[in-house]
Structure of Pyruvate kinase:
Amino acid sequence: MQGASHMLLEEPLRLASVLTPAKPKVFPSLTKIVGTLGPKSQSVEVIQECLTAGMSVARFDFSWLDAEYHQKTLDNLRKAAQNVKKLCPVMLDTLGPEIQVNNSTGGPIEMKAGNHVTITPDVSKAPSAEILPIKFADLAKAVKKGDTLFMGQYLFTGSETTSVWLEVVETSGENVNCLVKNTATLAGPIFTFHVSQVHINLPTLSEYDKQVISTWGSRNSVDIISLSHTRSAEDVRELKAFLQSHDLPDTQIYAKIENSEGLDHFDEILKEADGIIISRGDLGIDLPPENVFMFQKTAIHKCNLEGKPVIVTRVVDSMIDNLRPTRAEATDVANAVLDGTDGILLGAETLRGLYPVDAVSTVGRICAEAETVYNQPLQFKKVMWHVGDPMPHEESVASAAVGSAIKVKAAAIVVFTFSGRAARCSIFTR
């Protein structure tokens, strides 16, 4: 084997063993699995099964449903965790500067390719195929002719039958006239509205988010906040100050990168945040599809070198309706692990999917298999080269422990710690 770029995957003995039964592992999967809890995963019984299947973190998405619903779900999570004797951190996902369309009529709206539709801030108008009201008054100031807009209930699933692609034709006062580019049926009570690569003058930490964090988040001492649509390091600093003022100093902030603005300021955001979530669904419509993979690989590499956890989203969308993922999705999960991702986030798969438990267990098995061929020694050398000399005391101790563990093929490193920092140093030194 020549060169540091070769992976352990190239070992012929390992490839020859693909069809043989996997050996039992001390830990089923080291890659963390974040499960979003909701309508299909709210009961104590289903949450217990998800925890047993490998769910490591429970995500509560406040862009959907209310605090009362999420409180009931969290209470069920605590019962389930106690029943299976497993700790499970709580992640609160903020709404952020998301523009939504309330479908007051509740009925489906048929959009036909080639037709025109007007986007208006006049929310007194009933949504229809000819006019769609949004809760944002400055859209006409932000967009220009030729800009791309997306709208749909499940906008970021990649299903073009439930989301519509619009092109700006002209602006008139506060209204925006658009050409419908594809035939689609908009259904459901709320549609998400996204403007591709255009700055939306709304705060990243909305007043709604502040209210949720100061009440539900503070009352439940949430462990992690996923800051949706993070666009700058200042967004993270603002949330840090807000958490300090509401007696949540230990709550970690994971910056969710969802658009080109977050990508442009990624390095500064990484330094401020405790972790990164690569929201590939949103990025997949804000960026050309061929550019998403490069950002994912680059971002994971930077997070690994900085010792910050990184989570990838939108991995097994087909499992929303099917018992098995596609071959491409399974390979995608494994490649994310081989790139160095620390976690996989399941959204709709566990929130409203038909097979939430199977989604968790399937992703866990793929991650565990990929981990067996992950080149840990090479990753350790990369981190050591990046940190350089002189090395901080804690990192020096952690690197010595990890180096020894690699040499003796230890199954685990037991760390005695008060704050958890020493354990995190050991984890991200790999």
Q: What stands out?
A: The radius of gyration is 23 Å. The chain has three domains: 34-96+204-371, 99-195, 376-429.
